Write the structure tokens for this entry.
Amino acid sequence: MAANSFKSYSLRNYNDIPQIQKLSQSDKTAIEIVGNVLPFKTNNYVIDNLINWDNIPVDPIYTLTFPRKEMLLDKHYLIMEKLIKENPSREILTKEANRIRMELNPHPAGQKHNVPSVDGIELAGVQHKYRETVLFFPSQGQTCHAYCTFCFRWPQFVGMNELKFATKEIELLSRYLMQHREVTDVLFTGGDPMIMKTKILSAYIEPLLDEALYNIQTIRIGTKAIGYWPNRFLTDDDADDLMRLFEKINRSGKNLAIMAHFNHPVELSTVAAQDAIRRIRATGAQIRTQSPVLKHINDSPDVWAELWRKQVNNNCIPYYMFVARDTGAQHFFAVSLVDAWKIFREAYQKVSGVCRTVRGPSMSSTPGKIQVLGVSNVRDEKVIVMRFLQGRDPDWIARPFFAEYDDSATWLDDLKPAFGEEKFFFEDELENIFHEHVYDDEVENFE
Ligand SMILES: *Cc1c(COP(=O)(O)O)cnc(C)c1O
Ligand code: SF4
């Protein structure tokens, strides 16, 4: 097998991974048990280049892509362990796994939004939450080159089809964008849109280059492929065509922004990743980067400082640091809001201004993207200061607001307004926004 031909591994065939013999029996059992509930998929590039197999199971990229025992709550682990020993039918196993998944908050709390519609037709694979930016989930892009164990999009990958959020309807999207001239950005997301063949991706993108869509100024593509499969941009058989598509977007006068997910500096350390970045940048595209802060992966200021420096050295622009969502294996990965801020602040102090384009730590919550600005004292009360980076109402953006200090809070829902106030300033209006529309379930995201 050539080093650059893609080989994917899941629960079905992980025993074929040559390095798997380095695992203890209990690590292997954990893959079997946890991998039946949370998504598990990895590939030969991740295995051969990113994981240090002498550092199992605590290696950050191993933890990022392989199921570990602690990722399930003990009670769930025990149920699955017992069931698997009984050698159940596929059907029974899936049923129990789905029952546990439903307890893992597959739709993070209260995430509702209006599915946009055009001429009375619902756009099921589109989200329009913030005025300027529309998210588009192309139906063929709802998988990835490997799965992150922290990922809150896991309902899309584990075959719970009723939760799948996708569409083929680019024509409808174009019509919608013509009727919504306030939209300047279309963000392709997934899964990972770079899983698609160039031919399919260009069928989605080319219509957006039409002059009639003069309002669209930036096309963004959210992807983890530079980290998980840089050959997508180098040696895959349609990699050259992909570069031509990127060039074409730039020639059309629109900005192409690759929103790259990097969770750990090791992802930027390979020649392939660095070459992929160089090639993408040579088409005129920008690369902006983002990641959540995660326990066991990157919960240290040194790791973040190195991540940002490496990104800048490779011509990428640090964009967002996120707080982990309250879903899936959150008990394993969650960092408190106060700790996330401390990590951000210490890392931010270590780097020069060119890295400080990054904003965070930020929660993608129901009302908007909320940045934790820090801990302060106001009139003898210890408070957490926050602001909106993005809001359902643009008027909320960039106004500082305050919560009671709470060093165990991991999400907005855990916080109370400071100074004895009953509600945060945006809560009444948020209610109103919700009541004005018909809502459907929303898959929240980090983009
Ligand atoms: C983050 C996000 C965007 C893009 O926001 P920017 O701040 O412009 O990067 C758009 N839609 C949703 C739902 C988002 O979560
Ligand atoms: S974080 Fe991105 S690359 Fe990782 S599994 Fe989720 S969608 Fe896929």
Observations:
- The radius of gyration is 22 Å.
- Residues 144, 147-148, 151, 153, 190-192, 224, 261 surround iron/sulfur cluster (ligand 2) (CB under 6 Å).
- The mean pLDDT is 92.
- The first strand starts at residue 8 and ends at 10.
